[in-house]
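seq:
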Amino acid sequence: MTLNDGFLLVTLVDGCRRWRNCQSRPPAAPALSPGEPMRFRVFAAVAAAPLAGLVLACGAGTSGTSTSGDAAPAATTQAVTTVKVGEVLNLTEDMFGSKTRVAITLTNVRAVKPSNQFDKPDNGQYIVADVAVVVNEGKFSISSGSFKLVAADGNAYNSTFMTGLKDLSGQDLTPGQKTSGSVAFDTAKGAEKGGRIALTNMLASGDAGYWTL
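struct:
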């Protein structure tokens, strides 16, 4: 801004101050020569030009989406792992910066006859598997509802309740804690041949892991 521009700004501010002071009393007709109103409008236009540029510059600096700060980390799981029955499936979850590591072992898959006449399978047979869980890091919950049996033809069978079994259950397990129990499936006869048992997980886009039968 030049010295001339500064003079014009001072003139404009002083004129605005005088105008505000005049609002509290009846306005008097100013003794202006015919050329003075036009000069005042010219002064205002010239003085406003630098201010308009400043406003536009500030607007450009604040428009758009803010990118400051780090984005919240997404919940992720490791790639789907497939192991054989009797082997350990190591599950790793990273949920918003909180890491969980769990070792899950599935063993002793067998067909089981119902213990009473009221506990008959709807699909043909009961398949039962034993599961052991150890938490190595973080916090983890699991139950028999975390598993399903997928037959070779693609039919999936959710777990079910069966009397006489110790149902798998573990809530908010912390490092060093463990749980074990059994999981039962009501399946068609022979569904276990060539099939697999899946560990489901709400954080995974599909199943979290498999044990081949």
